[in-house]
Amino acid sequence: MTQAAKILYMTQPSVSQAIAELEKEYGVRLFERLSHRLHLTTAGERLRSYASHILNLSEQARKELADLGAGGSIRIGASLTIGAHLLPGIINAYRQEMPSVDIFTLVDNTSVIEKLILEDELDLGLVEGPIYSKHIHEEKIE
């Protein structure tokens, strides 16, 4: 808490109070206090993931609004088979329609693509393997 307070230019009691208010707001413990150290609980990890996603979205919105005239960018991940056989054609067709959009691609296995989407490192994933997260919207393409 003391280290976080220094980084945030706050007092340690203010940081403790903010955490207590978050725990009260969500009705869960965010930290386990063991041997004068704090460890994130499962709920704390989940909240941290959401907070990271919100911060990434805010930064992405800032960049996209600043680049509104430039076309923006899209980050696409694909599993190995799709990346090798289908993605090049999809990218070429998209570039025909949206030439001012920067396209970043990554080819890896399905579980890596799923993880990167959850971490907000990719905007879209094209995979043939199963997706296990309830937080990802899936659409079957035939």
How would you classify the helix and strand content by structural class? alpha/beta
Q: Could you give the distance between the termini?
A: 52 Å
Q: Quick check: average pLDDT?
A: 90
Are there runs of 5+ residues with pLDDT below 50, and where?
none
What is the tally of beta strands? 5
Radius of gyration: 20 Å
The secondary-structure element order is: HHEEHEHHEHE
Shape: elongated
Characterize the main sheet. 3 strands, parallel
Strand order of the largest sheet: 4-3-5
Overview of this protein structure:
The mean pLDDT is 90. With 142 residues, the protein is of the alpha/beta class. The strands form two sheets. A three-stranded parallel sheet has the order 4-3-5, with helices on both faces. Strands 1-2 form a two-stranded antiparallel ribbon. A hairpin with a 2-residue loop joins strand 1 and strand 2 (37-40). The chain is built from six helices and five strands.
